[in-house]
Design goal:
about 350 residues; alpha+beta; 14 helices
Amino acid sequence: MQILEKESFVELELEDELKFRYAISNFGRLVSFTKDIEYGQILNGSITEGYRIFRYRIYYGRKVSYRHKFFHRLVAENFLEKTSDEQIYVLHLDHNLSNDHVGNLKWATKQEMLAHHGTNSKVLKARKQSGKRLRKYNQKRGIVGQKLSKTQVMLIKTLLSHPGRKTSQKIIAREFGISEMQIYRIKSGENWGHVKIDEQHGTSSKTDKPAEKKIEKNKRLITGEKAELTQKPKKEPIKRKKGGAWDEHLKAYCNGEKNDLISRWINENRKQYRDGNLSLEKIEKLIEINFPFVSEAKIKKSDGWDGQLEEWKKGNRKSFSIQLWKQRSIRRFVEGKLSGDRIAKLKEVGILK
């Protein structure tokens, strides 16, 4: 192995003694050796999200522990000094994640890291080009540029205004697919301030009769308030079946029972939630037990992002999980949180241009 001019190596101190010794240089090169570094071998490592990673294994008897370390952090820890304890991030100054030369690295605080990320030309270009595509995409879904519909906002405000509410704002945010900060902003009126609800009845102050009717019905179910209905309410088919009422099915579901009756109960809850006919009282109870409102909303860990991409390539594009994967990928692309490797893959299949 040839040592370059002005290149210096520092031997790594790992958790346990390994078969070889390892050293990192200020040029970002990792070498494995036995006695002399000059006779060592250069290791390229593996690539994850654009970062170079050194992976190794530690044996504890018959058990194996898998470990990894980032090249850029090894260089920073051995050749760069921190000026503050808040500097826990390492920046690539040229935004090239594979360039781990010490001159291209810098310790940074969280604020400095976010500011540096905003100067990435790829991020700026993606944000500039994706606005129009995102609006078109949302228009096809009937959202017209908004993550929430007016009825959903009214449901959120009704949940937040209920004095006996037990569901936390974090859980409500997770259920509606938005951030907890959005919930705070809706509650304070900073976002969706034009949508008002009557604190007594939970109805909108604007003329929206279908939405008012739905919120009024849900509010009555929460508070137990009695009111005369002009139409006979729809009966829940599950209650007519053997095995007890809705709460008994809920208890059986929590106990892990699996049968045709529980399956029909699950499907009925999903259908009523999708149609907006599920009461807020039941929504709160289902949220507390992490009920899967959409059967394919949760992407399996075994599939992962690349697995969903492969399904897209095969032409399986109508399932809810694939559409959700596409939506999340586009959203992360717009927010500048999608890696360059995944952006390239999405462009290859035509999702991004």
